[in-house]
Amino acid sequence: MTLNSDWLLVPVYCQYVGQDGSPRVGSVLFEAEQVVVIDGQQVASPAPLTFNLDVNGNLAAMVPANNDPHIVPTGFAWSWKVTEQFVGGRPPYFINVDFATPPPGVNLATAVPVVPPIPYVTYLTRTDIDVLVPSVGAVNALQVKTIQHYGGVADGTTNIGPAIAAAIADGAKQLRFPAAPLPYKLTQSVDFSGMQLFGDGPGTVIDATTGTFSSNFVFAASGSLSSLPNLAADVSIGASSLLFVSAPALAPGDIFCLDPTTSWSGHRSYYNAGEWCEVVAVSGSTVYLKNPLYDNYTAASVTVFKQVSKVAGIRDVTINAAASLGVISASLCANPSFSNVVGTHYGDSIISFDRCVYPTVTECQLSNYGGQGNEYAVVFGNSQH
pLDDT (tens digit, 9 = 90+) per residue, 240-286? Predict the structure, then answer.
């Protein structure tokens, strides 16, 4: 039994310096002394997560959201214990990590400590976990590994596609591309659905200017749609609940689409009308919405789909793409986030969002040199924030 691949990770950061301005030396420990249930499978919480400070005293961590709707208990029913393991560190305290935190993430310098809402279960030892979960995946799923761990090299010529494929096969949810003097060569498209990829900033360069690519993008992530029962009644703009003909397979935090299969665009017919909705509660056949509806809908002409989303994130990396090849695509994803990406391209779009909810692009430098028809930096298609 491995840790669920959809457990959303959130950046947590801070800079620690002494009164004289010198950087602190040490690490920050995150502990979740809690047994959780994910999509019906009981798993131990991950082993304690330790993140070392860099030479400037900076913390850069990726921590699972403790209100992820896939997890039971959720809704901040438990909290992360934070221990600053260095001289001058604060006494241990507890924080909540919200999956909806906007970039750049949770700053521990300003995060407000919380009181843990329930008594924690005594932390499970490795032996306890091995008994409860007969797979080391529950222990190691959130440990960050580098592309080098899977055989990738930054020599400007060796294709790292097989190394990324090996990371995916290993169940890696985060993959780091350390800075290197030469670029990482990539000659094939990569499906990074369910993964977060990150580098070390300007020193991490991926060269995808030549190769055989199976999609229109270098990196692509995609979720899927699942059909839901029809609406039982028409709904009006401003409505905060919907009645279905039967109980839908929806839970708080889920995303679904009201799709009338009609276009709002006279130019591109595939720009559908309709909207995405987030569930806050379900009672029988009635679903309550986080936000009121933007439009009116006739039950007989609307199809309803649940978004089965995938994690998708890329940050702190430069990606150079071949002519007419896009850099990053996210389709049917919730909270896809791309930050500090430097991208070059000669075609349609550098970053593309298709039917995504809460997409974010922050502090990216995107250069589209054109010459292939439409020239965009970022395209949002049938997406909603």
Answer: 999 999 999 998 888 999 986 666 777 766 676 678 999 989 999 99
Distance CA 217, CA 211 (A): 12
Structure tokens at 93: 């305290």
Whole-structure pTM value: 0.63
Q: How far is CA 80 from CA 7, 30, 53, 66, 270, in A?
A: 15, 6, 19, 8, 44
Digit-coded pLDDT (tens) for 85-130: 998 899 889 899 988 888 888 999 999 888 776 544 433 344 444 4
Q: For residues 225 and 305, is the Cβ–Cβ distance under 8 A?
A: yes
